[in-house]
Structures are given as structure tokens and as C-alpha cells.
Design goal:
about 375 residues; NDRG; AB_hydrolase_fold; developmental protein; differentiation
């Protein structure tokens, strides 16, 4: 009987000569990712057509994870490294995913005709209900980067009952002021559109270092066949309205929010300011060291850990094993509660490549965790 069982196992999951079970598992995971290409749909909205790709099947009583990318990217170039990361597979098995491409940003998109009026970011947010109605999805957990983070925030303000949580990476909730507008115009006189967008996506230190990642994304944006479309999306982002967040006021995000930014990233100050305007009992702030301007590309492992704990805090995946980041965070919050009593539970998770210790700041300051 034992021999029969061995034969069945060998036939069911054969190992290559010299291949370990761990390597076989990794190969199986890679093959499954390659086979799961998703289903792409397009739906007409009052502001034009929008394309999105759905992965997985809806789970009962669970929201969909809906992503929205930044300027210069599409859903694949913005989120693929994160969602193909090994530890992320435990998460995506439990949720259906909807990856939205801004109009004209999808692969193979035709260039819009001269004079085309591209939707504003507010109008892009107003397209999302059409997507959810088409799919018959009632609630979402949103993950947005840059312009995509703004769009999901605007949608959440307009439709709070349909948003269970938000992960906002590099969000700038403020409209451009006169000084910003003037600086943008001056930069446009000396820099190409692609260079301005790269400066939006990555820090100057990263651009100067010209790593393999920077070379890859510089090539993607500079040689994009839809660069004219990208410029339209870029213009809409620069003409965004102020979200007018106000802590304790009527205009705020009602759902749990995780704000994410890289240390010394181009939008670090904007995200810090956004954190100061949101409800501290609903908001987590994750500042990631050594991650540059695009944490989901450079640190998918750390971001996956944080996202898993964010979901657990919302009551999902309670049986999932806690990661090193979430264990550290739990310890820090417990320590903070014992020291500061009923103080506000606004949290900061500061990730470092160096090993650090837990420490509690003085009253009124957020907790920092190094891991």
C-alpha cells in the first residue's frame, strides 16, 4: 500500500531529477500565475470607456480588491511585482481582484484624437460605479498609487458605503498651488513629459543611481506607444481638486485606511500631511525605508506583510499566520496602550533595513516600529 501511495504521488506531482519539494512548489506557483491571465472587460460610462481585468472568482461576503495605477503606468507595470510576490498568493486566493486601467492606458490602447477631452480625476472616480455594477460587486478594498490613490479617495468620499478599506500609496490630496503650478510650467520648458513623469514616480536619488529598475521604467515610459494618452492623464492629475480632508470634520474617509510612502520619496511630505488630516482611529501610516518612490515595486514583501495585517484588522484572514511586521506592530501597540492609556491609536509603522527595537514616543506622537 505504501508503494502504491508513492507511485500516486509521483504521478500526480512529478519532481525533476535533483529537484527539491520546495523548488517544485515554487515552480507550481509560477506556472499557476502564468496560467491565471485574468479576464479583461470594457464598459461604457458617461465619461467614455474604461478597461479592467478581473482575476479569481467572487467570494461570499467578501469585498473585491480593486486597484488603480499611477500616471505613466498601467495595472501590470504598477502592480504585477506586488501581486505575483509569493506571500501575496495567500491573500489573493481569498479575494477576487479588479485591476482598473485608466482610459487609454491599457495595453494596445489607441491614441486619442487631437483635441480629445480626457476625464478629470473626479470623473475617473465616477467611472468606478459602472465597473462595480457591471460585475455586480457591492463593496471593495481599494489599493491606489499616486493618481490612483487620489481617484479611489474621491470615490470613497462619494460612495462611503461601498468601500471597506483603502491602501493609499503616495497620495497627494492637495490641489496644486500657484507656486507648484509655476514650477511645473518651468520644468515643462526644460524637461520632456517622460522625464517629468519619472520625477513624479521616483526620487532624485533613484533617478541619479539609474538602477536596473529605473532603466526599465524609463524605457517603458519614454517608448510608450500611447505617450500622448499618458500626457493627458498627467495633465488631469496636475489639475486635480483639493480633497479637503479635515480631521474631525464632515469630509473624511470613513473606512480603515493604510497610508504608505517610501522614505525620501517625492510625495513623502504630502502623505505625512494627509495622515494629519485623517481620523487617527481609522488610519495607519507606513513609512518604508529603502523603498524609494514605488514601494510596491521595490519592497513587495514588506508591503504584503503590512497589507495582510491590515486585512486581519478588518476581520479577514483571521487564521493566517502573523508575520514579523504584524507581530512587531502588535507588540508596539500593546506597549503604547499600557504606557499612554486611552491615547489616540494613530499608528506609524516605520520600516528599516536595519534591525531595530520597539520604542514608544511621548504623548501625542505616533509609534515607530523598525523591522
Amino acid at each position: 500500500m505504501a508503494e502504491l501511495q508513492e507511485v500516486q504521488i509521483t504521478e500526480e506531482k512529478p519532481l525533476l531529477p535533483g529537484q527539491t519539494p520546495e523548488a517544485a512548489k515554487e515552480a507550481e506557483l509560477a506556472a499557476r500565475i502564468l496560467l491565471d491571465q485574468g479576464q479583461t472587460h470594457s464598459v461604457e460610462t458617461p465619461y467614455g470607456s474604461v478597461t479592467f481585468t478581473v482575476y479569481g472568482t467572487p467570494k461570499p461576503k467578501r469585498p473585491a480588491i480593486l486597484t488603480y495605477h499611477d500616471v505613466g503606468l498601467n495595472y501590470k507595470s504598477c502592480f504585477q511585482p506586488l501581486f505575483q510576490f509569493g506571500d501575496m498568493q495567500e491573500i489573493i486566493q481569498n479575494f477576487v481582484r479588479v485591476h482598473v486601467d485608466a482610459p487609454g492606458m491599457e495595453e494596445g490602447a489607441a491614441v486619442f484624437p487631437l483635441g480629445y477631452q480626457y476625464p478629470s480625476l473626479d470623473q475617473l472616480a465616477d467611472m468606478i460605479p459602472c465597473i462595480l455594477q457591471y460585475l455586480n460587486f457591492s463593496t471593495i478594498i481599494g489599493i491606489g498609487v499616486g493618481a490612483g490613490a487620489y481617484i479611489l479617495s474621491r470615490y470613497a468620499l462619494n460612495h462611503p458605503d461601498t468601500v471597506e478599506g483603502l491602501v493609499l500609496i503616495n497620495i497627494d490630496p492637495n490641489a496644486k498651488g500657484w507656486m507648484d503650478w509655476a514650477a511645473h510650467k518651468l520644468t515643462g520648458l526644460t524637461s520632456s513629459i517622460s522625464e517629468m513623469i519619472l520625477g513624479h514616480l521616483f526620487s532624485q536619488e533613484e533617478l541619479s543611481g539609474n538602477s536596473e529598475l529605473i532603466q526599465k521604467y524609463r524605457n517603458i515610459i519614454t517608448h510608450a506607444p500611447n505617450l500622448d494618452n499618458i500626457e493627458l492623464y498627467w495633465n488631469s492629475y496636475n489639475n486635480r481638486r483639493d480633497l479637503n480632508f479635515e480631521r474631525g470634520g464632515d469630509i473624511t474617509l470613513k473606512c480603515p485606511v493604510m497610508l504608505v510612502v517610501g522614505d525620501q520619496a517625492p510625495h513623502e511630505d504630502a502623505v505625512v500631511e494627509c495622515n494629519s488630516k485623517l481620523d487617527p482611529t481609522q488610519t495607519s501610516f507606513l513609512k518604508m525605508a529603502d523603498s524609494g518612490g514605488q514601494p510596491q515595486l521595490t519592497q513587495p514583501g514588506k508591503l504584503t506583510e503590512a497589507f495582510k495585517y491590515f486585512l486581519q484588522g478588518m476581520g479577514y484572514m483571521a487564521s493566517s499566520c502573523m508575520t514579523r511586521l504584524s507581530r512587531s506592530r502588535t507588540a508596539s501597540l500593546t506597549s503604547a496602550a499600557s504606557i499612554d492609556g486611552n491615547r489616540s491609536r494613530s499608528r506609524t509603522l516605520s520600516q528599516s533595513s536595519e534591525s531595530g527595537t520597539l520604542s514608544s514616543g511621548p504623548p501625542g506622537h505616533t509609534m515607530e516600529v523598525s523591522c
